Predict the structure.
Amino acid sequence: MRKTSLPLDQAPELVTRWCRHLGLQVTAAFSPSGDEALFPNRLVLEGPDASWLAANKGQALDALQFLLHEAQGEREEIRLAYLDVQSFRLFRMKEIIAMAGFAADKARAFGSYTFTSLSPRERRWVHMVLSRQPGFSTESEGTGTYKALKVTRV
């Protein structure tokens, strides 16, 4: 593991400064997600230009988050800041929680259910949500970044 170079509490100031250098009027501040186990250290970006970061399925937001994680030097999820704009990622987390419940119902009824293409973070959310319920196992299938996820009744 790499040494931490940017403490978590300094992330909002760094992201705000980076956005200012990009010519964006955006400020960053921590805000709870409602489920800190799934979405810890939610750093909300607000301001007149914040919506630019959510455009194109949040690709600019993903790039900025990647740079932030590199600056933090951490790989433990609980110590990393996660960027969100207009509750873009918070909504997706809630959507994945609902989808995990649907998958659990289908697996209970039919033995298994397979999600098609999920990002690593989305798969992690499904794994974590279903680990809270006894009687299910989850397994990622395939290669590449976006993989299928199989939920099986045990």
Remarks:
- The mean pLDDT is 93.
